[in-house]
């Protein structure tokens, strides 16, 4: 997985769905309003014959007025022709739209977002994760609150931080409906409030490639959080004190809570990206993979943390991503730079993969295991394509094919994630600066979709399963919030985006 330059200063960037130009507004009229009014009320029997000079001046002024009116008419005709040729706004699609010009910006269409907020950060962040909370499941009311954690890629190693945040008073995106005069002014969902951000930081010595929070945190009270750093170290923190500080006024975080509770050094100085907590083992079971192809399993005993001395290993190619099975507590999958997706069993004494499948001719950057259907695995590739695999078809005798495959993106896939609450919805981020949402349940021969594609020519080469395109500069990681249906958190060059569309 590629990194972005940390030397670029962060500036607040506007999310996009619509492209506009600053020249779309017509220029102001050449004749001032005051001059027109004077012409209407001018005395025709005034002193216009006092001198020849005055006669010439009046006649020339009338000629100028005639020329101005004719010029204005021509200008209006030109503008109308330009509007027909180049619409004021167009839909921006990464696979077919031209790059933005120096005078063009991308603007989000608020009517397609239920919620959209941006959080600026001091440095770019390659990774983000959501902290589970005790505010309830299936939350659909506003203002919304959520907890997230991320880590920086600073220009100087000593300036890096692990940042934990509580984001509250996140209001619903307000779109005024002119036809709705009876809107309830007391509707809490439409309360226009200023968002609030509380944050706690932990100093780090290196860039963090990936950060992951234990999915059992809210159950156990231990907010176990692992970071895979550029130095090769895997640091495990307990962020429960930081979490408590957000909701307990006056609470002082102990100094010990700003230090890792365990450090995994088995990777030496080899950095990596693969990192995942087991969703089935609540005591804490972590897998970490590095760029030399080694995968280490770390688990907790009653007194300390233990990392297996023998790594899982198949090739020298980098382990780009790791995912525990959502159905079997000894099974996990990996994505590699050699184009393979491999399935492993921790009980194997040989520490070799049980099955290896060539998923792409390029790097397999990311994978995601479905929480609802535990035999489905999605993979995202360096050539911009991604697919979904039925693991029941994986065996040593045959070469399986993906049950779904898309090449809509034209740049490397940087993150892929099944919606934990809907097995058919997948979020995909790419280096083309977009996050796309897909609904695999949509049938290509659906009558309504077929009619839409006939009416709109620009839809003819867009897969019918594509639900939404969200623009975010240098987007690297995207995570679903399991307790707020449809809510996503994504990290990019302009900070964090917290958003929810009307599509999901």
Automatic annotation (TrEMBL):
Query: Domain of life here?
Result: Eukaryota
**Repeats (WD): which ranges?**
312-354, 357-399, 406-440
Which cellular component, as a GO term, is one annotated location? nucleolus
Tell whether Nucleus is among the UniProt keywords: yes
Which portions of the chain have biased composition (kind: Acidic residues)?
A: 32-69, 177-197
Which residue stretches belong to region Disordered? 1-102, 174-197
List the biased-composition ranges (Polar residues). Answer: 10-19
Compositional bias ranges of the Basic and acidic residues kind: 70-88
Concerning PANTHER family, the annotation shows: GLUTAMATE-RICH WD REPEAT-CONTAINING PROTEIN 1
Can you give the residue ranges of the Histone-binding protein RBBP4-like N-terminal domain?
A: 103-170
Q: Where in the cell is it found?
A: Nucleus
Q: Which organism is it from?
A: Debaryomyces fabryi
Name of the protein in question: Histone-binding protein RBBP4-like N-terminal domain-containing protein
* Keywords of the record: Nucleus, Repeat, WD repeat
Please, one GO biological process term?
A: ribosome biogenesis
